[in-house]
Amino acid sequence: MSGELQPSMGDIRPHGHLKIGRFTQHFVDVLNLEQTPLEFFDTMYPGTPREEQRKYLGRFGVSGSMQVQKMGELSDGQNSRVVFAKLGRDAPHILLLDEPTNHLDMESIDSLAKAVNEFEGGMVLVSHDMRLISQVAKEIWLCDHKTITKYQGDIQNFKMDMRVQLELEDESKGSKSKKGKLRGDASVMKKTNDEKEKKKKAKSEGTKSSGSALDSLLAPKPMDTAERKDVFDVGEVKESLPAVAPVSQPKVEPASQGRPKYIPPHLRNKS
Q: What's this model's pTM, rounded to 2 decimal places?
């Protein structure tokens, strides 16, 4: 469709005034990272007043100092906004979007979904983002076994049917899945508060029961009367020891009173 590949059979005859806008996973190749967003727009659309370029970039979230900063210093999400601004400025008849949500936050994804729904031209969108697909996909067609059939239901029903076929049902429903849960799927990862409370309660009860069993093992057991007879009794041992005579303390005689009183040498002459 974009003209990069030539058909092996048949002819492709696009309209002479057909405009095709592309957003690929390698969108950085479209940008000159040495330029600022304003310089890039001046190069792509010469003759447009600088003030109008600023206003148009600001509509896509590229505003303020971001407009005069080199795109090599911007994040992938900010650069993707510059590419979206270029797509809007080109006003194409057909859009080819390949994984456009890779570097977008949730608010930007919702804005992109709104723009896709309001776009009046043709579009080919390749995406694995359920937030985007659930907002833009109106019908689901299944291509399998060399046939094409329309699926009766929305994207949520289709996702649930795929889980059943791939044996990825929720464990709470009693499924014996060998492949495990579908990671990243919010509908699988959600658990009710009742289930969480039950698990917490069961865990706490198990902890209490194990603690009570341990306490019962460590608690001292009462001794029988027969066991008490064999216990070492200090009182009986003291009674069986022979009596020991008290040790007499030596008498200390007081100092004799006839001894002269000691007088220091420096006071002897004064007496």
A: 0.58
